[in-house]
Request: fold
Amino acid sequence: MHLLEAYALTAGCKVNHPHIHLEEIELPKNKYITFHGFSPKGPSKQYNKWEMVLRMLSLDEGFDYDIIQIGGSNDAKYEYANHNYLGKTNYHSLAYLIKNAELHLGFDSLPVHLASHFDRKIVAIYPWYAQNCGPYFSDPNDIVILEPDFSIFKPCFNVIDKFDMINTIEVSDIYEAVIDLMGK
Amino acid sequence: MDQQQQLNAINEQIKNDTGKKLLYIVPESAGDIFLATSLLMSMHSLYPEFKIYFACKPEYKELLKNNVYIHKVLDYMPIMESAAHMEGIGDWKGLFDISIMGTVLTQRHINYWHNGLSRLAFDIKE
Reply:
């Protein structure tokens, strides 16, 4: 069950689209994807190979998009992101930035839900079941969700994952998912 | 703050409001609060004569800016999770006609994981 469905059952209400106030900010001139890679909430969501994914995208001559890194001002910066928006957005300007992106790349966090609300393409990785917390409003054809293989170890559902399951996701799978979705 | 101080602080924010009051509580985090806003149209339709108060931690209140279904955004306080204190019990009249702890199944008594296999027998989307 998705957590939003648990909210709906608890409240006895149906699900419509969410609401967020939009605030315009200056957008990059080129077409872009938003990238959210750093998890300040603990290592279970932290993928250690994002830089490799971004490098592969940057080297791909067919990938003609800027990469905009989003997040907080204290987040680690990724070298292969073209633009650094860390700490430069609030909730409302972040929503505007994502609304105008061609795709969002990241992990289980608010930006994925914003991208889903705005029908953006999404590639997202999860250290637990995406059925519980993934992009709820998206057309399944517009998203790729990557999870670890949980057949041996179950998800930790915690900020600490002693099996570091998220880092079992292959770099090539993330890269190919972005390329495939952008080619559609 | 002790319980009485929390009740006083909540009451201070709503005491001049007339009519029926519904408190919807989602303490955190940003993604959860954003998702929960997708229920407010339905909530408003179900309870058109109620004022809807949305309670969350202060750092997330900005997420609810300009939401037409919300009468007021309140600072979350732990006592809000007690329906008896919020809705009343015995000789205590309470502060709200309805209080809903939105995240009780996801953040307090977790009951939605089900190994990613659960199904719904009805359409929960509007």
Remarks:
- Chain A has one domain: 31-183.
- DSSP finds six helices and six strands in chain A.
- The mean pLDDT of chain A is 96.
- The domain at 31-183 of chain A is CATH 3.40.50.2000 (Rossmann fold).
